[in-house]
């Protein structure tokens, strides 16, 4: 079976070398030396912001809402993973959906101001598939209306805008380091802050709100362990190679699918892209379902990512967002990860081509 993602694991002996130190120190969690080293290395990789390693990306988003003291309405995107909406609801705020751009599938910055009300406290936008939101326009809107900006950067690790990490824009950016991500720690996430004061506040929020016997604020357990930090330390030096390999597979997919009636997100000019996913947009939902079924019959897992449009969730309905609703019914992410052999890319593309041109499926590949 070929899955839509496939987690990379470093050489076992490399990971075991970190485990040996954990066994010697007998400190498994609670801000151990490996966790602190990972936070420091991530900060350096991103260009200097304060990185707080968390138990997952969803907790990071919840911590962001708490750290910024948000209430009332939060403007957000309907085209994202469900966590982007669920954290808003979990923190007793109200999601207000703004439709997405036709090209990048990120929130349409030109439509944000019309959604602002006296109850609006923030904008929570997602860098979809690693493509950047219009961070310049969103910052200007936030400044005009005195709003906070949180970015869901779950897909954005490794992408740069104007030579600067995409994760360093906004008041706070939440990351996911889930096993399926380009950079992962098995389970994990991070919150990217810009000041020591904010980093300290996030640290307290994720550490039950106290340091030693001094209790400063209400908090939760959002910490991560030495085991997850060790995996991250193995992974981080490999990110550049991962992105380079993904770029080659991305181009191969495009070459193999050339000439078909498919749409792709448009890469904005002037960015260094991380090639996080390979989404394709079909002409209609029926076509997508046919291709998805054909791939499944050939033991290939493709994912409807994202579906449904979040404004159609039964527990968080919102105003109509026609672009997001349309794209959500037609977009499919094909298998895409550095270990995917080029021959398999050709096979997957061949099946898509066969399905769209009503030819017989290509023969299964034995690799």
Structure, explained:
With 367 residues, the chain is α/β, with parallel strands linked by helices. The chain folds into two domains: 12-237, Aspartate Aminotransferase, domain 2 (3-Layer(aba) Sandwich); 239-356, Aspartate Aminotransferase, domain 1. Helices cover 36% and strands 14% of the residues. The chain has eleven helices and 14 strands. The protein has helices spanning 12-25, 33-46, 57-67, 83-90, 135-145, 196-205, 226-235, 239-256, 285-297, 322-330, 342-356, and strands at residues 50-54, 73-76, 94-97, 120-126, 148-152, 160-161, 164-165, 172-176, 189-193, 210-211, 214-215, 271-272, 279-281, 331-333. Strands 1-9-8-5-4-2-3 form a seven-stranded mixed sheet, with helices on both faces. Strands 7-6-12 form a three-stranded antiparallel sheet, with no helix packed on it. It is globular, with a radius of gyration of 21 Å. The N and C termini lie close together (11 Å). The model has no long low-confidence stretch (mean pLDDT 96).
């Amino acid at each position: 079976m070929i899955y839509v993602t496939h987690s990379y694991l470093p050489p076992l002996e490399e990971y075991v070398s970190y485990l040996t130190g954990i066994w010697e120190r007998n400190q498994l969690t609670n801000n151990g030396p490996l966790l602190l080293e990972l936070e420091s290395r991530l900060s350096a990789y991103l260009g200097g912001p304060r990185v707080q390693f968390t138990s997952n990306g969803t907790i990071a988003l919840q911590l962001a809402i708490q750290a910024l003291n948000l209430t009332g309405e939060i403007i957000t995107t309907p085209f994202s993973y469900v966590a982007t909406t669920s954290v808003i609801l979990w923190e007793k705020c109200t999601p207000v959906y703004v439709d997405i751009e036709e090209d990048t599938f990120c929130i349409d910055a030109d439509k944000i101001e019309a959604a602002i009300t006296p109850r609006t406290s923030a904008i929570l936008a997602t860098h979809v598939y690693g493509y950047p939101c219009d961070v310049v326009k969103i910052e200007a809107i936030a400044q005009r209306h005195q709003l906070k900006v949180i970015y869901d950067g779950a897909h954005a690790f490794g992408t740069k805008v104007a030579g600067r990490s995409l994760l360093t824009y906004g008041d706070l950016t939440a990351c996911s380091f889930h096993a399926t991500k380009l950079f992962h720690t098995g389970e994990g996430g991070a919150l990217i802050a810009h000041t020591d004061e904010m980093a300290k506040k996030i640290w307290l929020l994720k550490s039950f709100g106290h340091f030693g016997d001094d209790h400063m604020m209400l908090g939760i357990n959002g910490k991560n362990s030495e085991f997850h930090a060790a995996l991250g330390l193995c992974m981080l030096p490999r990110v550049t190679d991962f992105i380079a390999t993904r770029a080659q597979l991305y181009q191969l997919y495009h070459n193999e699918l050339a000439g078909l009636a498919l749409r792709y997100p448009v890469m904005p000019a002037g960015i260094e892209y991380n090639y996080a996913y390979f989404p394709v947009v079909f002409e209609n939902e029926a076509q997508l379902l046919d291709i998805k079924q054909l791939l499944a019959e050939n033991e290939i897992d493709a994912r409807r990512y994202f579906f449904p449009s979040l404004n159609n969730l039964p527990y968080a309905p919102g105003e109509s967002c026609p672009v997001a609703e349309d794209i959500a019914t037609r977009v499919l992410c094909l298998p895409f990860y550095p270990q995917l052999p080029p021959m398999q890319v050709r096979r997957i593309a061949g099946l898509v081509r066969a399905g769209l041109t009503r030819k017989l499926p290509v023969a299964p590949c034995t690799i």
